[in-house]
User: Fold this.
Amino acid sequence: MIKQEIIRGYSFFKKKGLKSTITKAKRHIKEQAAYKMWPALSEERREKQRNRKFAYRPLISIIVPLYNTPVDFLEELVDSVIAQTYSNWELCLADGTAKETEITRRVRKYMENEDRIKYKILDENEGISGNTNKAMEMAAGDYIALADHDDILSPSALYEIVRAINKNSHTDVLYTDEDKVDTDGKGYYMPHFKPDYNEEYFLANNYICHFFVVKRDIALSTGGFDSEYDGAQDYDFIWKCIERAEHVHHVPKVLYHWRCHMNSTAGRPESKLYAYENGAKVLRAHYKRCGIDADVEMYPESYGYYKTTYRLTSKPEVTVLTIGGSGDAGSRIKYQCSRIHVDDYNIDKINDAILKQNNRYVLLADGNAKIDANHIKTLLSYVLRDNTAVAGGRIYDNHGKLLFGGFTLGIRGSFGYAFQGAGKSDRGYYLRIAVPQQTMAVCGCFMMIDTEYFSKVGGFDNEMDFATAVADYCLKVRTTTDKISVYVPDATIKTKRSKEYYADVMSLQKFKAKWSNIIQKGDPFYNKNLTLNFADYSLRKKGVKY
Assistant:
């Protein structure tokens, strides 16, 4: 693991420089120290899980394609499946090596004592997609689960999946958190604590990845895995499943351990650039199926992350409302827009200005920021979508420190702006600063709103300060119209740091009282294993109990 860490660290240093490397190293060391203290699944808990009587006990088919698989890696995978605390499973192994090998002998040895294992030697190697399809043809389960031939499942992986299915019978698709495991299968690190289903974030990266489980009928209806997207075939398959799903469920526990060695994308992502190029093709195909007019490109030097540009089919006039400052923020915009200015962050004045103007779309911006046409086009391309009412950009101060890079509900009992104070080279936890994602709210100092909903929800609450009133507004829109708010970092501005980015105590108290039920449930886009003391995505001292 140490050798792999050094190689990855040096690669990052060459791309990002010393300062970014030091920042990343400090975060990694802090995270790893916390993760080493993570609670393991005790034998007592395992026994309780084994004895659990579920009302519904679906058969889970774990499908695994094999090809020149290292024997010790496969044995660790098989052992981890046999050790599951939920017993109604089958393991379907399709071997594309196309001849009897040591793997064949080992698997048949397992099968002498374990009739839940199915093994087939294929006539020829059909590639990752073809071999996976052959494994799926062997499956008889109610649900299909995907696993790679060199990875490891947590003992409670299937138990937690079935537990979630029993809680919600409409669940079609499930996924879990994951981490990395070293070549020796002993060192666990880099946990990925994911959000609940966040379509905007999934459009930027296949964060769902492992452990993925889907109803059999949905899996079959997709036509299986497509070799056109080899390397990103899981991304394509998962999108097709989600397009057909009624309910996507996230289990916020690390239940899958992704083997990190130098032949894997986890260990050396640049070794399989074709996989990331095919990931962009996956998204283009998804947009085509959904009738969405968009361009897709890879984020430079961020393997596996994608940038979507929605083409504007119309260019409605926009009102640019600048607040405070000099008021000339929109004076150089080369876009059809009206401009109005409010001299301070007085809620009554802002509400009045929005209600009196005539355009449907309004861009609110701090009066000291420099706004251009690209900002308008980028944010407008989001709020023009049927499901989006608010889009907010990324904001830095004049010293290059982050003022707004996302929103987190529940921080210290109310809310916080994610990664506040981070430098420009910092991309955040799994690029959460750098890529678009759905959030519960945005920052009002740089946001585009669809005013169709503004008067319906009563505008901004004039008994709150501006920062809190905007968060309150986004939640009102979300709970009354089901329209979403999106953080769009591709629209980035720089402005002066001011008190408007910080909520006062009285406003926060009112916010907490008003939204206590939602706050108590937790921000769906912020994992329960992450701290609520700060909005920095660092780990809690004690995570969710297993």
